[in-house]
Amino acid sequence: MIVLTLTFQLEPLDMTWKDCFLRCWLVCVKEDDKEEERDQDNNDEMLRPWMEACRDILENGDLFMSTPKFPIELLPWLYLSDLHTARKVQLLRDQGITHVLSTNRMPLESIQAMTREYKSHGILHKAVPGEDHDGYDMIGSHWKDCGKFMERAKRRHQQPKVLVHCAHGSNRSALIAAAAMLLLNDDNDDNDNNPPLVRLVRTLSEKRGRVLTNRSFQKQLCLLAKQEGKLGPKPTISSKQQPRTDGKTP
């Protein structure tokens, strides 16, 4: 709560109450902005160890794959892809994909055509108009709808396989897939030394290669983990020194 002590010098004499109110309102707006900036700074400082650990992994070239083969299995029920592969409907059908989630903005006609083709092969489709640029709130704008779609797929289908894609399978779809790995995964195996968030990011990087290059998306994943109590213990060792989950040396 903001408490303001305002002192006005009523000069010039022709200042109206409307002028006084406007000046007061402007002061309040400035104070609100300052409080938001302070909260943002506090959040950034609190999350810094996790953000640095994740960034270590995501920007460590030793983990990058040359050309990933889509679709990529992240979990038995969750796959990551680019748009080119997502359009190969028969391939998806052959691999048992039951649901497709499009996270990149597309013309309505394209979405409708994709939905019809998927439906003809028994695949359910949902699309959200995600964008990939610094500062875009992918989680705030689309996670609720995407999470419900995937949760419903898991609940209603005996053997669900959800494919999440965007244009290149690296930022928008990767962030939504990472959020699903964080919040919708039934596997509670915590037998390694990595915090849940850091372990997830390492797994994603090992399987996809160069991924989550949008730093604001990295931050959104860390914020989501904090909000949902999924950060885990504070990282104390550089992620570059952590053992790889596939047994190889970085």
TrEMBL record:
PROSITE patterns: TYR_PHOSPHATASE_1 (PS00383), TYR_PHOSPHATASE_2 (PS50056), TYR_PHOSPHATASE_DUAL (PS50054). Residues 70-230 form the Tyrosine-protein phosphatase domain. Keywords: Hydrolase, Protein phosphatase. GO terms for biological process: negative regulation of MAPK cascade. Residues 228-250 are annotated as: Disordered. Residues 147-208 form the Tyrosine specific protein phosphatases domain. Its EC number is 3.1.3.16. It is an enzyme of class 3 (hydrolase). It catalyses: O-phospho-L-seryl-[protein] + H2O = L-seryl-[protein] + phosphate; O-phospho-L-threonyl-[protein] + H2O = L-threonyl-[protein] + phosphate. Pfam families: DSPc. CDD domains: DSP. InterPro entries: Atypical_DUSP_subfamA (IPR020405), Dual-sp_phosphatase_cat-dom (IPR000340), Prot-tyrosine_phosphatase-like (IPR029021), Tyr_Pase_AS (IPR016130), Tyr_Pase_dom (IPR000387), TYR_PHOSPHATASE_DUAL_dom (IPR020422). Belongs to the protein-tyrosine phosphatase family. Non-receptor class dual specificity subfamily. This is protein-serine/threonine phosphatase. It comes from Seminavis robusta.
